[in-house]
Amino acid sequence: MGRRRSSTSSNPLGCFFLLVLGLIVYIVEKISTFLSSIPTPVLVVLLGGIVGFTSFVIYKKRHSNETSGENDDFWSNPVSSNNSQSSVFGEAENSLTEPVEQIPAFGGESEQESINTTLKSYLKRYSSSINTIHSIYKELRNNNKVAEAIRNHSSESSKNEPTDRSLAIIMLADIQYISKELGHPISKQNYDTCGFISLLLRLQIITTKSSNWNVLTSRIYADNSTDLDSFLHNLQNIHQQVESTGELYLLSVILDNTNQEALSRYKQSIYEYAKVLANIDGFLTSDEIQFLQRLERDLPKVTLSKPENIDFCSQKSKSHIDIDEELNNLVGLESVKSEVKTFRNFIKIQNERKKKGLPIPPTSYHLVFSGNPGTGKTTLARIMAKILKELGILSKGHLVETSRTDLVAGYVGQTAIKTNKVIDEALDGVLFIDEAYTLAKGSENDFGQEAIDTLLKRMEDDRDRLVVIVAGYTNEIKTFIESNPGLSSRFNRYINFPDYTKAELSEIFKRLANKYHYTLSSDAEQALSSLLDETLSNENNHFGNGRFVRNLFEKVIEHQANRLAKEDLNTVNINELTAKDLLGEKR
User: Fold this and answer.
1) Would you say 381 and 432 are in contact if contact means Cβ atoms under 8 Å apart?
2) Distance, CA of 265 to CA of 300 (rounded, Å)
3) CA distance linking residue 311 with residue 316, whole number of Å
4) Confidence bin at 250 (pLDDT 50/70/90)
5) Contact 533, 503 (CB under 8 A)
6) pLDDT by residue (tens digit) across 500-558?
7) How far apart are CA 269 and CA 286, in angstroms?
8) Which of 471, 499, 485 has the alpha carbon at shortest distance from 384?
9) In DSSP terms, which residues pair with 468 in a beta bridge?
10) Distance between CA atoms of 408 and 301, rounded to whole angstroms?
C-alpha cells in the first residue's frame, strides 16, 4: 500500500491524468443533470441545429477545396503550342488556389455613390478597349472549338469543367503581363491599372450582384479586405509558361489556329488597352515606346502602299517583262536610265568580286531622287526595287510608298511607333519617301525630327534589309539632306529627273491613248501640240509633267463622252478623239 502511494506521488504525469479524468467525469455529470432538466422537444431541436451547422461547415470547406482544385487541374497539364499532349513549357509552379474574396454589400442601394474624379477619368479612357475585350470573351466562351482547345491543355479531372473561368484567367494573365512590361504593375495603391480591376469584375472573377462597374471598381480600391496579391502572383506564374517562347499572349498559344479572326481582334484590343495604360500619366518613356512597338509589330499586317495610278511612262504596265526592257520603255529620262545602268553594273561587279573572295568597299544603296512632280520617280523606284532583288541586295524587292502623313503623329511618342510600323513593312524591300523634306519643315512642337531620328536608327540597325529612296523638288531635297549629317552620310547618290520635253509629253499622251484603244484625229494632234506649247510657255514650279498629261488624258475622254452623248452611238466612232475633245470648253 505504502509502495503504491510512493509511486503515484513520484509520477507527476499520472497525477495530472487522474485530475483531468476526474474533471471530465464531473463535467459529464453536470451536463447530464442539465440536459435532464430540458424538455425533450427543445433538446431535439438544439441537437439538430448543432448537427446541421457542423455539416454546413464541412460542405463549404470541401466545396472551397474543389473550386481551388479546378484551377490546379487546369494548369497541372503544361501549356502546349499545339493540340498534342507534348509540351514545350514546364508545369505552372502555382495555380489560382486562393480565390479573390467577394466584396461585401455589393447590392444596388448605393449605386450613385461618389467616385474619385481621377478614377472616373481613367475608367472612361479604358472603357472602349475593356468593352471590346469583354465582348471577345463572351464570343469565345460560347465557342465549342475554343472550349476544346482549353480542355486540350487541361488535366483529365478538369476536362468536363466549365471553361468560362479558365478563359477569363488566360485573358487576365495576358493583361497583367502587358501591364508589368509597360512599367505599370497591377496595384490597389494607384489608379493607373484600374482597367484591370474593372475587367476583373466584368469577367466575373469577383462575383457581384450589380453591373455598375465604375462603382464596383471604386469599392475594390476602398475595401482593404480584398487582397489581390496572391491572385496576381499566380497569374504571373501562369503567364511565365509562354514568355520563354517569345510569345506575347497566352491566349494565342492556347487557341493556336482555332479562331484567328477573334485572336486578331483580341491582339488589337490589348494593344489599344496598352496604349491607354502607357499614356495614362501623360507621357511615354522610352521603355514604354519600345514595348508598344513590339505589340504593334505583332498585330496583323496591313499594306501601306498607296493605290497605283495609271503608269503613264510604261507601255507594258504590269507584265513580267525583263528589267532592261521595262527600263528602256520609259519615255525620255535618258540621263536617268544611264545612272541606273551604271548603278546596276557597279553592283554586279561588286558581287563578282565578293564571289572571288576579293575585298569590296562599303556601299550605300540609299538614293536621292530629285526633280519636279510627274517625272517618273515612283516608277523608277519600282524598277530599282526589282534590280536590287535581282542582284541579291534585297530578298523581296517590294516597294512601300509613304509620306509625312504616314510617319508623323500629333503627340509625343507616337511618331516613332508610326515610323517603325512603316519601316517594318518595307524590310527586305525599298522604302520610298515622297517629299521627304517636309519632315523637317514643321513648327517648334512638330514631331518630324522624331521621324528622321527613327529612320536613321533603323537604316543603321537594318542596313542589310532596307534601302531608302527619298524624293522631292531638287533644291528642297538637297537642302534637306545637307542640313543633317546623319542624312548626308547615308545618302550620297543623287539621280536628277529632268522635266519632259514637248515631244516626250506628246509621246506619253499617245501611249495612254493607245493603251485604252483611242486614236487621235489629225486635228486632235494639232490641238495637242498647241495645248502643250501653251502649257510649257507658262511652266512654273507646279508643272506636273507626266502627271499633267495623265490628268489631261482623263479630261479629254470626259469631254469626248459629253460630245458623243448628244450623237447617235450607232453612227459615231467612239474610239476617236478630236480637237473639240482636246480643247474642251475653250472651243
Assistant:
1) yes
2) 9
3) 9
4) confident
5) no
6) 888 989 888 988 888 888 888 889 888 888 888 888 887 655 567 888 888 888 888 88
7) 22
8) 471
9) 431
10) 19
Q: Which of 269, 233, 234 is nearest to 251 (CA)?
A: 269
| The three three-digit cell numbers of residue 87, written as one number | 509540351
CA 443, 279, 220: angle at the middle one, nearest 5? 160
What one-letter code names the amino acid at 11? N
Which one is predicted more confidently, 370 or 88?
370
Helical axes 144-151 vs 164-181, angle rounded to 10°: 70
Bridge partners, residue 399, by sequence: 430
Pick the CATH number of 502-586 from 3.40.50.720, 1.10.8.60, 3.30.2420.10, 1.10.15.40: 1.10.8.60
| pLDDT winner (highest mean) among 23-27, 43-47, 416-420 | 416-420
Cα torsion angle, 116, 119, 121, 124, sign: negative
> How would DSSP label each residue in 448-512?
HHHHHHHHHHHHHHTTTTEEEEEEE-HHHHHHHHHT-HHHHHH---EEEEPPPPHHHHHHHHHHH
Q: Looking at domain 323-497, does it have CATH number 1.20.1050.80?
A: no
Query: Looking at the predicted structure, is the pLDDT value of residue 79 above 70?
Result: no
| Cβ atoms within 10 Å of 196's Cβ, excluding its own | 25
204: amino acid identity, one letter: Q
Residue whose cell numbers read 514637248: 502
Supply angle C-alpha 96, 98, 99, rounded to 5: 90
Please check whether residue 416 is in contact with residue 454, taking contact to mean a CB–CB distance below 8 angstroms: yes
Model pLDDT, residue 264: 83
Amino acid letter for position 479: T
Q: Alpha-carbon torsion 143, 148, 150, 151, what sign? A: positive
User: What residues does each domain of the chain span?
Assistant: 75-102+113-297, 323-497, 502-586
In 3D space, the residue among 181, 228, 195 whose CA is nearest the CA of residue 121 turns out to be 195
Cβ atoms of 191 and 231 within 8 Å: the answer is no
Type of residue numbered 586: K
In angstroms, the CA 424 to CA 54 distance is 66
Per-residue DSSP letters for 70-95? HHHHHHHSPP-SSSSS--SSPPPS--
**Number of C-beta neighbours around residue 579 at 10 A:** 18
- d(Cα 294, Cα 383) in Å, to the nearest integer? 32
DSSP 341-379: HHHHHHHHHHHHHHHTT---------EEEEE-TTSSHHH
| Cell numbers at 251, concatenated | 491566349
- C-alpha span between 180 and 443 (Å, rounded): 36
Which of 51-55, 237-241, 410-414, 492-496 has the highest mean predicted lDDT (pLDDT)? Answer: 492-496
Task: Give, in order, the Cα–Cα distances in Å from 511 to each of 243, 379, 515, 550.
Answer: 58, 16, 6, 11
Q: Residue for cell digits 525599298? A: 430
- The x, y and z cell numbers of residue 157, run together, are 479531372
Give the integer Cα–Cα distance in Å for 205 and 168. Answer: 8
How many Cβ atoms sit within 10 Å of the Cβ of residue 83?
Answer: 12
- Closest Cα partner for 369 from 470, 437, 478, 491? 470
Q: DSSP for 115-148?
A: --HHHHHHHHHHHHHHHHHHHHHHHHHT-HHHHH
Cell reading at 468: 531608302
